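Proteins fold reproducibly. Next comes an illustrative record:
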Amino acid sequence: MLTLPGSLTFTPSQFAEVCAANPEAVLELAADGSLIEMTPTGGSTGARNQTLGALLWLAIEQSRLPLKLFDSSSGFLLPDGSVRSPDASVVRLERWQALSDAERDGFPPLCPDLVVELASPSDDPQALRRNMGAYLANGACLGWLLLPQSRTVEVWTVGDLETANSPRVLIDPPRLEAGPEFPGLVIDPRRIWEV
């Protein structure tokens, strides 16, 4: 059972206290201060998430780009006051190193440069698209929304928000390139679909 103080909305510091008091819970904090309770993933989604992390790690190693990779358990304190946990995320190393030890140990106060959301069968794609828009509005420069059921990737960039354009949609691509933001960072999303 979740242990909560009397309030129904929380500041980021209160949210950190709630998380510390409920280590078994998987929570995010919305920009309005409300809690978002996450459920554990099913087996296929968990395996896909692990494959995604492995592919990103290998791509970062091979590209030799100065990047730091984070998994789905990592919460970030975004500029809008929310604390969100993308399924995978990448932060430029100089931004990570600019944080204090206390900031790194808590919810790092920054938005990742690259965010990846991996849809599970129970996810609402529209909610995931709203999440992508929120990440871009908070400072992400690139987002990938992976939709395994349709073997589709939506590539979100800051320009999509500024011009009210839709993301670029790739159907079963053999390569997913991070482009000029992260030159040489490439994964094969088919490896994720195969799980």
Notes: Helices lie at 12-21, 43-63, 93-97, 101-105, 125-137, 158-162, 190-193. The radius of gyration is 16 Å. Residues 98 and 164 are 32 Å apart (CA to CA). The longest helix spans residues 43-63.
